[in-house]
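Dock beta-D-glucopyranose; give full complex structure.
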Amino acid sequence: MRAFPKDFVWGVACASYQCEGAWNEDGKGPNIWDDFCHDPTARHIRDGSSGDVACDSYHRCREDVALMKEHGVKAYRFSISWARVIPDGDGPVNEKGFAYYDGLVNQLLEAGIQPMVTLYHWDLPSALHHKGGWLNRQIVEAFGRYARIVARHFAGRVKTYMTINEPQCVTSLGYGSGEHAPGLKLSQRELARIYHILCLAHSEAQRQIKAVDPQALVGIVPCGRLCYPRQDTPENREAAYRATFDLSRDWVFTHNIVLDSLIRKGYDPSIPAVLRQFADTIDPADWTQMETPDFIGINVYNGVMVDQTGSAVENYPGFPLTGCKWPVTPEVMRYAPQNIYRRYGLPIYITENGLSCNDRVHLDGQVHDPDRIDFLHRYLLELKKGMDEGAPVKGYLQWSFLDNFEWSLGYTERFGVVYVDYPTGRRIPKDSARWYAQVMNTNGECL
Ligand code: BGC
């Protein structure tokens, strides 16, 4: 196939709690995921595990960066553990925590790999949680301060930031269903308030980053329902667009519950009563505080097929599924970037895409994962179609380089192109790592 644009960014992504380990080393403060996994009163994680050691990337950073380089990775999206660099979230800075990220960033730069930093990938310092976490508006200032400290520290080395990963999961899983830390089950009204605070926090962080590093690009990574048309007709495309952003369906898990606030400075008229009531309590000055990001990161795993009326088409029995039983729907990769672009007009990065497979080491000592290769191949072909049809996608980051701690599913799901043998920490590149290396090295021409 024709190559991707010359400056297209190919890479991989991960998050601090999922891969670092070293949960209590070198002055790191505890965070809500440490507490959630260690909770003696309940087993929140399917296999009873935690991120205490995870992939031990904290100690194996050099080896991991070397592996990335060997595979032709051009960009690495990783997150900073807030409690590692500011143990209680809003107090003194922990220089040893920064030393770890200095090592990582410098090694990446030496390897010719662009560091892309996420500031918040769910591991809130426990001390801030005890002050109310994302329900307490004071967190806006603390997050802004943290962002400023990080951006000042890395100015000239890190050029791309993402403030918050998936505010929708932070809210709906952490404070709604309670499946994720901090494990709360709050009302929809309170969820609306959390969304609003997250948007204010993004905005404050963006201002603070720009104040100390005006060249930095600042994005956000929302998630939520992504619909794609059953048939490629103008009517069906329109229905898919509308269904993606219709807040009267499930407003909690939509991209626009966040992006409309930041970019359109208000809610869509389709908001349900609970959100309308909350909206009425918002100080109008808040809307002027909202910052439009420089780009939008979208995490694309699967989508909802809709018909001409926008109704979801049920998947047929035996529909293709991944290891953790998520539907395989490559078409979403063609339409989602176009729909997000149509509504917001901003450049897009695919900040995550991938799947879990039941990978294991085969008799020959290798890890063969044809399902992953087929999945990524299909999604990338569709991505290119969407780009050819006008979506300005600047880069693609596969989730994930290493197998890692998959939140409430523990180590039961493997998303990596590199296998991690957890008892020894040994890394074994899977077949998909070699395949993806070829994709990156040929700028997609081999697809
Ligand atoms: C999250 C990742 C997670 C992945 C797979 C995304 O929602 O950002 O942290 O591992 O999905 O579940």
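Observed: Residues 141 and 204 are 7 Å apart (CA to CA).
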